[in-house]
Every structure is written in structure tokens, then in C-alpha cells.
């Protein structure tokens, strides 16, 4: 930079560190700043602060801090963080997701460490950290970065087993068009689980650009006629926010949940047990994710050694938005009528079926397979 600007290293240092007032001519300052811009130079204040012993902040970058899931992660992080450290939250400039420029803004700050929550796969390939960095919810795409992931594939497979036990063999999916392994594996795990038992996703996915309730509401209104014609009896949403939008659309269309359509989400947001009906969803351990991030990153900062990556468990939380498939109920009713004519033998069969469903579903509002 000094060579390009034609000035000494000491003069460049004064300008770059903001100590040039009254010591460097305005024209010289402009020449140096132009050289810095041309070279794409960014001051690494983290390294400077480390040398002075002034590091006191952890950076937290997430797609949308207003999303309740990331608010819960942030709450867990704050609870476990040392009182001598503060949290700096960096938000995307526009839209719901962050890009490399947001990460670079974070890395240019006075940070002891950095947490990147749910980053895109291609973004991770371009990040060059200048401080201890931990990745959250990348589902195996973090590369050499220490990471904390969620066992999403197991959760999706468990969900497939549960839906099939209720007789749902024609399932539709609502997802978001983002380059994120964790979001993609929710759908892949569900489809793999359904196919393993001879079922599958029965219709084209509803793929949305925005991760909002409004987008899911509008999308479902347009897609439901096709899904109904295809015999869909259950819809799985890749996020609870989408499930809220679908639930509202079902009320608008007069589609009973779970009478005609069962509905499932992912995340287990705080509002999901208070919807009408309460939402069956996959708990993704948001607060535990934040708490574990605090533990790993503080150890990383203190020792300088990257911690071992971890995978957190997930669990299916069964509530009242799911029930036996409509076609399956009709089949049992018909079999029941025939059984009555045969001396009531089907009553025992129906009882066994109900016991099996209770064993899979568990009590309302409880975790399935949580051990």
C-alpha cells in the first residue's frame, strides 16, 4: 500500500489506524485511502486489539435475528457467555440471509471470536477467518471449521416413521430455496424415510424464496388444489414459520387440520404449542445450540486450539396438528362394518392399530424417541 501510494510505511500506518489528524496532509491521506481501496485492504482490528489485550466481544452472524429460532440461539449464547464478554450481532444489509460482505464486516470488528449461524455452503468456501470461529447448523459442510450441527437426518427419518404409522402415504413438502445443507437434508431425510417403507413425497414441492408466514400462506392457497387432487393427506414444512402460514391458509380454505390434512413443522418455536391446533414439530435444540457455541468458542479463544465439532440430538414433539390419514380412517371404518357382520372380530384389530399408533406418537406434547 505504501508503495502504491508513494508514501512511507509510518505515514500509511497513521492514516489506516485513524491517527493522522494534524499529522498528515489531506492530499496524502486521500492517496493512501485510494491505494487501500484499490488493493481491497481491510484493517484487522481483531489482531490489533489482541496485541493490546482489549478483546471483549463475540460476533454473532445469522440469516435473520428477528427469526424466533435465531433469537433462541442468541439467548442460549448470552446465558453461557462469560460476563466479561459481550455479544455483537451483525445483520444482513438486505433480504433475510447474509453474504460474504456481512462476514467481512464482522471480521473487521474488535472481536475475540465469531459465530456464523446457518451459513450457506458456498459462503463457507470463501470465508477466511482472522479470529477463532465456530459454525452452527451447517450439517457437515463446515470443512475445517469447528462446528455444532443438529442431527437433522435422524429427525426427518423419525418423522417419516411417525407419519407412515398414521397411514400417511402421500406427503407434500414446503421448503425454502437456499444453499444450506441443513435445510436440504430435512427434505432428503424425510423422503428417504418414506421410500424405505414404500411411500414417498407425492407431489411437487412448494419451494419459496422468502422464509415468512405470508409466503407460505400465499403459496399453499395456490398449490392446495393440485395437492388435494394428488391425494395428499399430510404436509411437512421445513420451518415452523411456514407451518403457521399453511395453518392460516387451511382455515381460509376450510380444510380441517388434522381432520383432512395433517401438518408438521421444524424448529419447535415457542409459539408452536399455542397454535390452534398445537403444532407437531421437530425440536432442533435452539437454546442448546447457543449454549454449546458459547462453551466451545470461549475454550477456543482461551487456548487457541480449535475444539472438536459436536452434533446435538433432535426430537419429534407430537401435538394435535397430526392425526390418522383420512383414507386410512375410511378404510378402518369399512373394515369395522365388515367386522361387525362377522361377529365383531375387527374390533380387536382396530384396538391393536390404535395401541400401535399410541406407541409411536407418545402422549400429546411429548418428545418421541428422546432417549
Write structural notes for this entry:
The model is unreliable at 331-364 (pLDDT under 50). This protein has 3 domains: 2-41, no CATH class; 46-150 and 287-311, Response regulator (Rossmann fold, 3-Layer(aba) Sandwich), CATH 3.40.50.2300; 152-285 and 316-324 and 355-368, 3-Layer(aba) Sandwich (Rossmann fold), CATH 3.40.50.2300. Helix 5 packs across helix 12. The N and C termini lie far apart (59 Å). The chain is elongated, with a radius of gyration of 26 Å. With 371 residues, it is α/β, with parallel strands linked by helices. Strands 6, 7, 8, 9, 10, 11, 13 and 14 form an 8-stranded mixed beta sheet that branches. The protein has a 6-stranded parallel beta sheet with strand order 2-1-3-4-5-12. It is built from 14 helices and 14 strands.
- Which spans of ≥5 residues are poorly predicted at pLDDT below 50? 331-364
**Beta-strand residue fraction:** 15-25%
What is the name of the CATH topology of the largest domain? Rossmann fold
The pLDDT mean sits at: 83
Number of DSSP-assigned strands: 14
Strand and helix layout:
Elements: H1 2-5, H2 9-16, H3 26-39, H4 45-52, E1 57-61, H5 68-80, E2 86-90, H6 100-107, E3 113-117, H7 121-124, E4 133-136, E5 147-150, H8 152-165, E6 170-176, H9 181-196, E7 200-201, E8 206-208, H10 213-229, E9 234-237, H11 240-253, E10 262-267, E11 280-283, H12 286-303, E12 310-312, E13 315-318, H13 326-341, H14 346-361, E14 366-368
Parallel strand pairs: 1-2, 1-3, 3-4, 4-5, 5-12, 6-7, 6-8, 6-9, 9-10, 10-11
Antiparallel strand pairs: 11-13, 13-14
Helix pairs in contact: 5-12, 8-9, 10-11
Amino acid at each position: 500500500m505504501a508503495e502504491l501510494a508513494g508514501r512511507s510505511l509510518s505515514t500509511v500506518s497513521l492514516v489506516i489506524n485513524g491517527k493522522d489528524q494534524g499529522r498528515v496532509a489531506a492530499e496524502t491521506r486521500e492517496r493512501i485511502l485510494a491505494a487501500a481501496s484499490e488493493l481491497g485492504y481491510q484493517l484487522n482490528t481483531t489482531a490489533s486489539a489482541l496485541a493490546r489485550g482489549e478483546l471483549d466481544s463475540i460476533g454473532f452472524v445469522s440469516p435473520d435475528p428477528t427469526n424466533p429460532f435465531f433469537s433462541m440461539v442468541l439467548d442460549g449464547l448470552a446465558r453461557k457467555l462469560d460476563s466479561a464478554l459481550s455479544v455483537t450481532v451483525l445483520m444482513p444489509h438486505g433480504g433475510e440471509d447474509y453474504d460474504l460482505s456481512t462476514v467481512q464486516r464482522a471480521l473487521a470488528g474488535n472481536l475475540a471470536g465469531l459465530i456464523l449461524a446457518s451459513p450457506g455452503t458456498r459462503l463457507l468456501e470463501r470465508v477466511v477467518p482472522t479470529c477463532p470461529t465456530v459454525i452452527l447448523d451447517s450439517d457437515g459442510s463446515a470443512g475445517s471449521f469447528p462446528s455444532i450441527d443438529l442431527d437433522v437426518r435422524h429427525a426427518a427419518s423419525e418423522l417419516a416413521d411417525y407419519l407412515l404409522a398414521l397411514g400417511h402415504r402421500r406427503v407434500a413438502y414446503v421448503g425454502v430455496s437456499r444453499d444450506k445443507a441443513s435445510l436440504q437434508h430435512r427434505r432428503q431425510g424425510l423422503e428417504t424415510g418414506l421410500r424405505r417403507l414404500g411411500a414417498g413425497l407425492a407431489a411437487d414441492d412448494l419451494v419459496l424464496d422468502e422464509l415468512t408466514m405470508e409466503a407460505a400462506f400465499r403459496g399453499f392457497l395456490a398449490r392446495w388444489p393440485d395437492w388435494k387432487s394428488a391425494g395428499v393427506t399430510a404436509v411437512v414444512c421445513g420451518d415452523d414459520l411456514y407451518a403457521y402460514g399453511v395453518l392460516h391458509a387451511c382455515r381460509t380454505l376450510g380444510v380441517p387440520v388434522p381432520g383432512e390434512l395433517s401438518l408438521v413443522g421444524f424448529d419447535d418455536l415457542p409459539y408452536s404449542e399455542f397454535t390452534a391446533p398445537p403444532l407437531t414439530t421437530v425440536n432442533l435444540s435452539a437454546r442448546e445450540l447457543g449454549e454449546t457455541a458459547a462453551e466451545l468458542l470461549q475454550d477456543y479463544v482461551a487456548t487457541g486450539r480449535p475444539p472438536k465439532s459436536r452434533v446435538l440430538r433432535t426430537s419429534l414433539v407430537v401435538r394435535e396438528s397430526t392425526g390418522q390419514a383420512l383414507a386410512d380412517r375410511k378404510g378402518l371404518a369399512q373394515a369395522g362394518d365388515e367386522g361387525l357382520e362377522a361377529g365383531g372380530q375387527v374390533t380387536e384389530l382396530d384396538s391393536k392399530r390404535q395401541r400401535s399408533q399410541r406407541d409411536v406418537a407418545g402422549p400429546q406434547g411429548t418428545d418421541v424417541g428422546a432417549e
